[in-house]
Design brief:
The chain is globular, with a radius of gyration of 11 Å. With 72 residues, the protein is an alpha+beta fold. It has one domain: Alpha-Beta Plaits. Strand 2 and strand 3 form a beta hairpin. Helix 1 runs antiparallel to helix 2.
């Protein structure tokens, strides 16, 4: 399953890259791309994953790097 999210308030491309690397490590994520220029997060979830729980962990991982990030 693939979901796309709008991302706002990322301070810089470097922070986005670091946040992307952290979020890719979340269990249940098959693929993930955080595009700073397009302000978009694309997540492909592993088959059978609890999407809501994995989504919450991805957002938590991103906010550890960029606390002001808004993901919707």
């Amino acid at each position: 399953m693939e979901k796309k999210y709008a991302v706002k308030n990322m301070c810089c491309a470097n922070c986005a890259a670091i946040a992307e690397r952290k979020a890719k490590k979340v269990k249940g994520v098959k693929e993930l791309e955080l595009n700073f220029m397009m302000q978009r997060l694309t997540v492909v979830y592993e088959e059978g994953a609890d999407v809501a729980a994995v989504e919450a962990e991805v957002i938590k991982a991103i906010r550890k790097i960029e606390p002001e990030a808004e993901i919707a």
